[in-house]
């Protein structure tokens, strides 16, 4: 669908409103009527932008929130050029998820769509691929600077670090605690620090 600037703004307002509704009340309380009231849009407008109704809207929310996951980590995630930069990134990740708490619009939207649907898998896979790629780029920067041994597989280490973060986030969604997320980050970064050349 090709949108005018005004149309794109309206569609974005609906997506952000739905994401806000999920954060405030959870996905099970998400009703299209509430989204319309929250975003000052009519039923015809909502179905114009989301012809499939709630499922289309949830997919748009998932895409929006996937983008936010990476945007919220910038500029640190894109500039992992020193140990200090990695520690700043670590702090930003923990702060983001601590502030988010147990209501994660991305997780809940994907859960409602069904994690095995092609669209949901594409959103999740795209997010994880970009995230892992930026972590791997940071590890390669440390390798180029002689901070980390070149023998380390940057992609594999980035995958392990990301898996730890995602596991920590899932536990946070259950317990409300960032303890496991912090432990995963600290262990992953400690492993990198220990992989200095000559050790």
Spell the H/E element sequence.
Answer: HHHHHHHHH
The secondary structure category is: mainly alpha
Share in β-strands: under 5%
Rg from C-alpha positions?
Answer: 19 Å
* Count of strand segments: 0
Alpha plus pi helix count: 9
How would you characterize the largest beta sheet? none
Task: Please tell me about this protein's structure.
With 199 residues, the protein is an all-alpha fold. The chain has 9 helices and no strands. It has helices spanning 5-25, 32-39, 43-49, 54-71, 83-100, 105-113, 118-144, 154-175, 179-194. The protein is elongated, with a radius of gyration of 19 Å. The model has no long low-confidence stretch (mean pLDDT 90).
Produce the secondary structure layout.
Blueprint: H1 5-25, H2 32-39, H3 43-49, H4 54-71, H5 83-100, H6 105-113, H7 118-144, H8 154-175, H9 179-194
Question: What's the short version?
Answer:
The protein is mostly helical and 199 residues long.
